[in-house]
Structures are given as structure tokens and as C-alpha cells.
Structure prediction request, 272 residues.
Amino acid sequence: MSRPGDPGTVPGLWIDSHCHLDAPEFAPDRDQVWQAARAAGVAAALVPAIGLANCAAVDACCQRYPGCVPAYGIHPLYVHQAAATDLEGLAARLAERRPVALGEIGLDGHAPHGDFACQERFFVAQLKLAREFDLPVVLHVRQAVDQVLKHLRRIRVAGGIAHAFNGSRQQAEEFLKLGFRLGFGGTLTYSGSTRIRRLARELPREALVLETDAPDIPPSWLPRGRNSPAELPRIGRALAELLQEPEVELAARLRHNTLAALPGLAAALETG
Prediction:
């Protein structure tokens, strides 16, 4: 079994289920960032939009870098910048280009400008779009797990991923009942993240997918640095150590889980 610090990789097996490769933090060296990720063993990445205005940037990124695939959505932290017509624009884009998922959408109870009612309106409307277009969703869930679950029970969608999951074991099981996988990333690499690490150990293996959320949520070896998709295999090795599971077996299992959550990714792997 590989140790978290080992330099080895599992070529072509790792999938970053949440990576904002289009973010301005990568503007100076985006080509090199994705090249480094591929060299490290990352086969594919989901690049989620945060609003209608940046869907074009997500598309450009995914067209430029083999293995990258888009998700379109309006992030809860940006709904205060969105117009009601953005939902119509999102629906038109979904009809025209059909992404791998609808996202990043959800609720954030920690939003500094926080009009939670506005967040809920956009979230509900986007869940209805996901149901209409039969798309999985990529969820942002921060200090609002029960509220998100309430809406998911009412508006059933084709599963997806609860990104950067930070809820309880009971809440995790509710997401699993609704057909979701749970995203784990850099947070689990910190020895002090006892609850997240315990969750990763206790949950069924089929519940887990791996992510970076790059450039955010850096792992323990980059505590104040820019996260990148190239860090994913090392995060995976940390998870393998935590679970006491061979790295190659875990990588294959996580790949299977990600493709089950996001079936449209399979085509990107074939062409990437």
C-alpha cells in the first residue's frame, strides 16, 4: 500500500469530481496546471460553473483540455448577482449543449450577504431544470444540509454528488438514499479533521468520490497555497492510507463511483 507521501501514481484512474479549472487563479499557467494533473495520473475532471456568466469560460476550458467536462449552474454564493432571466438562459444552455451535470447549485447558510430565501428560489428552480433535463446535480451544501435534503426529497433528480460533504453520518445516509455520492478532498488530509476522517472510514465505499475543489480547499501540505488537480492522486493516497486499502483498488473504486454519479463522464474518458 502506498503511503500518502509516496511519489507513485495510478496512471489514468483518478477523476477529479470537482475542479474550478476556469478560475482566475489559474490564468497565469492553466496549460501547465492541467498538464501536471495528467502527468500525475488524473484522467478527467468535472469543471462546474458558478453562474450563467462564466459558463462560456467553463466551455472554453473543457474544449481546450482533454478529459475536462462541464457542469452548468448558478452557485448559491452568486445568486445575489443573478437576474431572474438567468434561469431562462440556463435552461436554453442546457437544451443546446447538455452538460454532464447541473451545478454547482445548492444552499449556503454561511453566505455573508445571505438572502437565504433567494438562494432557495434559485435552488428549487434549478432542481426542476435538472429533473426536466434528466441530469445529475452537483451540490454545494454549507451549513444547510437539512434544508437541501428537504428540497431533494420534494423534487427528485437523477442523483449526483454532494460536494465537499461536511454533514453527519445520519445526513450522509439520507443523501445515499436519494442516489447521491459524497465528495471528499483536501480536508481529510488534516489529522485534526477527525469527523471527516471518521466519516470516510465508516461510510460504504460506494458512497465516496474524490475531488480537489481547486483552487480552494488545499490539502495539508499546501495549507495556504493554491490547490490544483495535480494534488488529487496524493489526496487519494492519503485516503487509501486512512482506509487501509491498496491505492490501485481504491482509485478504481472511486472511478467507478464517479462514473455512476456522473454517467456523461464516460464519453470524456473515451475521447480524452
Summary: The chain has one domain: 22-271. The beta strands are 14-16, 42-48, 68-72, 101-108, 137-142, 160-163, 180-184, 208-210. The chain has a mean pLDDT of 94.
